[in-house]
Amino acid sequence: MAFEIRILGADDVALVRQLAGVFAEAFNDPRTYTGKPPGDGYLERLLGSDNFICLVALDGDKVVGGIAAYELPKLEQERSEVYLYDLAVLESHRRRGIATALIQGLRDEARRRGAWVVYVQADTGEEDAAAIALYTRLGNREDVLHFDIEV
Length: 151
Known about the structure:
Elements: E1 4-7, H1 13-26, H2 30-34, H3 40-48, E2 52-59, E3 62-73, E4 80-89, H4 98-113, E5 117-120, H5 129-138
Parallel strand pairs: 4-5
Antiparallel strand pairs: 1-2, 2-3, 3-4
């Protein structure tokens, strides 16, 4: 099976809506990803912003995987980091190199933007074992703590 990796822009609202459905299914979290969908204007602004990066894997015209990432300008030097926030591939399309191709596409885009690193976090539970194996194969592991501070 051939698939295409595409970086989305402001005109790709329909594709990013499909990606939200992929995330909802892959993460078993429809409430978060499809429960209160944002309007088209919001998605156009997000996809057109300088700090948001969205890639999808297409099988024909169907989104079968994707990445949502954020470029974060740094204070200490004139450089940025790219935070890979969400990555998912539909179960029916896993183990075909799609996640690796998506990450490579993100690395290429990060390099094009002048970022010095792409980073990602994964939960230590069994549900993220495949993600941890993938990220370990592609990068250097750091064991860190993550805290959510309510606003």
